[in-house]
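Possible regression after last week's pipeline update?

I re-ran a chain I had predicted before the update to compare outputs. Posting the input and the new output here so someone can diff against the archived version. Not blocking, just want to make sure nothing changed silently.
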Amino acid sequence: MDSRQLRYFIAVYEQRNLSRAADQVNVAQSALSHHISNLEAEFAAPLFERKSRGMEPTAAGERLYEHARIILRAMAEAETEVRQGARVIAGDISIGMANSGVKAIGVPLMRTVLTDYPKLKLSLTESLSGATLMHLMASDVDLALVYNPPSEKDLIAEPVLEEQMFLVGTAKLVGKAKSPIRFEELSRLPLILLRHGLSARALLDDPVLLKRLEASAILHANSISGMTGALVAGLGCTIATKLFAQEQLAADRLVAREVIEPKLTRTLYLCRLRNRPMTYVMEEMRRLIIKLIAEQVHGGAWQAKLLG
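New output (post-update):
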C-alpha cells in the first residue's frame, strides 16, 4: 500500500463510480480498478460492493477511508514541514470554533493570518460546540475551541478560560437585569436551550445542574439565529454568556440577569487529537489563538477568567 493507492481509493470512495474517479485522478479506468483490487487483496477484505449503478463502500472501505484521509494529510504536512522548516509558517491549517470563539476572535485571527502569515492557508469552521468537537474527531479540523469536551483518550484538551453564564431573555419575561436570580427559580421559566450533541456539557461545567435545566426546558434548538430570534420574540429565555447575545443586549432587546446560588460557569478548551503530531503551523496557531483570547479578555470584550 502506498500514497498513490490511497489517493485512488479516496477518489473511488468519494465519487462512488470508477469512471468519474478515473477522470478525477487522471488514470485509465482499468488501471484504477486494478489498484483497488490489489488493495482488497492486501487487506483480504472487499472495500467496495460492485453494483450496476456504481461502487458502494463496505464496512472495511468506510474504515479505510477515515485512515486514508489522516495518512495523506499527515504526509502532506510532513512534506511541507521538511521543505519549509521552522522559520517559515506555510501550508494549510483548519480551525474549528464554537460560535462564541468566532464572535470574539474570528476576525482578529483572520486578519493576523492574512497579514503576518502570507504562505498559510486558513480554513475557519464555525458550529455549535458539539459539532465542532465532531469535526475535530473526524480530522476535519486540526485545532478546535470547544466547551467542556468529554474525556477521550484520543483528545488533548487544554483549558483556556472560564465564562460566567447568565439568564438571558426579554425584560418582560426575565425581569430587571440588575437583579440576580436564584438557580431554583429557573425551573419556573420557559427555558430554550441549545442542543450541543456530542459535547453535551458545553452549556455548563456542572452536569447535575445541566440535567435539571434540560429537564425543565420547553424547547431545544440547533440554530444560533433561531435561538436569538426566539429570545427577542419573547418565546422563552435561555442560559448563555453576555458575549452570545451582545448585540441584542446593547440594543436593549434582551437583558442578562446573573444567576446565583450557585453561579453558573462553563470552561473553554483548545483541543487537538493525540494521534496527530503537533506541526510548526499548529504550534504557531495555538500560540496565536491563546494570545488573541487573552487580548479580548484583558480588553473587556470577552468577559471571562483566563486559565493556565
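Follow-up from reviewer: compared with the archived run. The first strand starts at residue 48 and ends at 51. Marking as no regression found.
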